[in-house]
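I hope you will forgive my troubling you with a question about protein structure. I am sending you one protein, given as its amino acid sequence and as whole-number tokens for its backbone shapes. Thank you for your consideration; the sequence and its tokens are set out here:
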Amino acid sequence: MDKQTQTELEAAAFRRLRDHLAERTDVQNIDMMNLAGFCRNCLSRWYQEAAGERGIEMSQEDAREAFYGMPYAEWKSKYITEATDAQKEAFKTSHG
């Protein structure tokens, strides 16, 4: 496989992951962090870092909007719920 095709397939897989997570608003970032060690915010930060490596200035807010498909504050108010004590404890245990 040539490099261009590989890059296009990787980009398509990333977009599919982004879109899947956008549809799964029931899955909280803290649950993703507890189970997988990364969340939507991590993905948006990695996107921002990739832009920076290519000399493209991008704020954290711009990167989050690119990943979430809306301003982060809007996503947060629509979909993020308060973490339960169990979720907080699991986070402390796995990231303490």
